[in-house]
């Protein structure tokens, strides 16, 4: 008789956003006519840039002609996109990444979870706490997390990120084999400095750990002294894999395109991690569509860059509005300066879910409870800047009114 992967049965029942959606639906069913303002969403709301739409049309037309039709593409992605990413996202920042170290994909979520395929299931894994839940669940599915004890995974190394340490994880006492880092961070909105990342790169190189660096929110960095890539740190090429995404940079959440960098210098006992990932991708993945790769390339054209930057600026106006509005109302607010996420402490020590329910009932605002991102998220709430200016202003007004 066949058996299932038992690790799936260990996963706690309700995924965070499913529970949030359930509570919202229940509230609305009980209170017909009420309208909620949603600042819980992690999805973008602005449409694709005109330059991207133009590229989508053009590439679609190419597919309709025998002379320009494209079939299966290279597993690692087309050179035109790999080169555009390097020219625009790495070279200007002094990150010595080469186009032949990049793999184009359908987004960062699949890559940062599938990357586990090339690592032993007996590796220990460290995650920030709170954390983007995908790293945790993907490793739980692979059997690296141990058992769920009702509050945490028995084998994961949790690295608390709280106001007390400026939302920057401390080096763990037990040395992990795989270390997930994400800056600018979802959910706390914290952004790492070069000095902070240098500590991690040196630690990983000294202990033989690999850093899995999620840079999905790099476009939101406003402070030019902050690194957009871990490869701005000398030594990262021998210890780090980086994930990039067009989702939040260019509104590709529904269009799907991202990339992974695996430096040629990154090896384990003489084996190239680039080669292992190429072997994995060529077996399990047939590439991101040509049309979508052309659309991603268009984000780097002169007009594409301008249009994409305008959208990011739009969201950052929301972020700063939320940040200053809540601070003025007396909340303890973090993030939102180099990130589309605002992270604030619940007033009067109330729990995340309790204050989430209060926001829902009394302010009619949907947020995301910090506890859903990990034990150290307890007592915090996450808001996002991905709404419209109007809905953001309304939400801030309603939340501020709670403070009287
Ligand atoms: N990484 C982080 C930290 C995220 O918050 C998200 C989406 O919310 C992703 C990756 C997913 O990116 P993509 O849409 O490229 O799969």
Task: Tell me the layout of helices and strands.
Elements lengths: L6 H4 L5 H15 L6 E2 L11 H14 L15 H12 L11 E4 L2 H7 L10 E5 L3 H10 L14 E4 L17 E5 L11 H14 L2 E5 L25 E6 L1 H4 L7 E4 L5 E2 L2 E2 H12 L5 H9 L3 H27 L4 E3 L5 E5 L6 H12 L1 E2 L1 E2 L10 E5 L4 H14 L2
Helix pairs in contact: 3-10, 4-10, 5-6, 11-13
Distance between the termini: 63 Å
Q: With helices defined by DSSP (H or I, 4 residues minimum), what is the helix count?
A: 13
Taken as a percent bin, the fraction of beta residues is 5-15%
Helix and strand string, N-terminal first? HHEHHEHEHEEHEEHEEEHHHEEHEEEH
- The shape, in one word, is globular
**Which distinct ligands sit in these coordinates?**
pyridoxal-5'-phosphate
- Overall radius of gyration: 21 Å
- How do the strands line up in the largest sheet? 2-8-7-6-5-3-4
Percent helix: 25-40%
Structural class: alpha/beta
- pLDDT < 50 runs, ≥5 residues: none
Q: Got a strand count?
A: 15
Largest sheet: 7 strands, mixed
Output mean pLDDT: 96
Question: Can you put this structure into words, describing what you see?
Answer:
The chain has 404 residues and is α/β, with parallel strands linked by helices. The chain has a seven-stranded mixed beta sheet with strand order 2-8-7-6-5-3-4, sandwiched between helices. The protein has a four-stranded antiparallel beta sheet with strand order 11-12-15-14. Strands 1-13 form a two-stranded parallel sheet. Helix 3 packs antiparallel against helix 10 and helix 4 packs parallel to helix 10. The chain starts with 6 loop residues before the first helix and ends with a helix. The structure holds pyridoxal-5'-phosphate. Pyridoxal-5'-phosphate binds next to helix 5.
